[in-house]
Amino acid sequence: MDKKNESPMEIKIIVDDSIAQGIYVNFLSVLHNKAEFVMDFGRIVPGKHDVKIQSRLITNPMAFKQIVKTLNENLERYEAHFGTIDSDMPVPKGVVQ
How high is the pLDDT of residue 97? Predict the structure, then answer.
């Protein structure tokens, strides 16, 4: 099938009640190898010297690239509407970015 003639796939998103509440995170560490990306989302608490990982997501390189693209598009829309986000926060010592 020619990609030009493909119609967009409609996806129904279902969020279970246990997931809908969400988890607050303010830290992300990304690890990768040839086959996958591992994203550890965590929370840094003022006055503490450790990070509690709240969730680990593992995905393949193609999906990771699409996730990054989607995040960038949403950040651009957010800043166009609300203004530029000041992101000059220092990276904690020992964190690999």
Answer: 47
**Model's pTM, two decimal places?**
0.76
Give pLDDT, residue 89: 67
Domain of 69 in residue numbering reads as 9-82
- CA-to-CA distance for 23 and 30, rounded, in angstroms? 18
2-21 pLDDT, tens digit per residue, is 566 677 889 999 999 999 99
Give how many domains the chain has, as a whole number: 1
| Rounded-to-integer distance, Cα 45 and Cα 26, Å | 9
**Nearest Cα to 65, choosing from 30, 21, 90?**
30
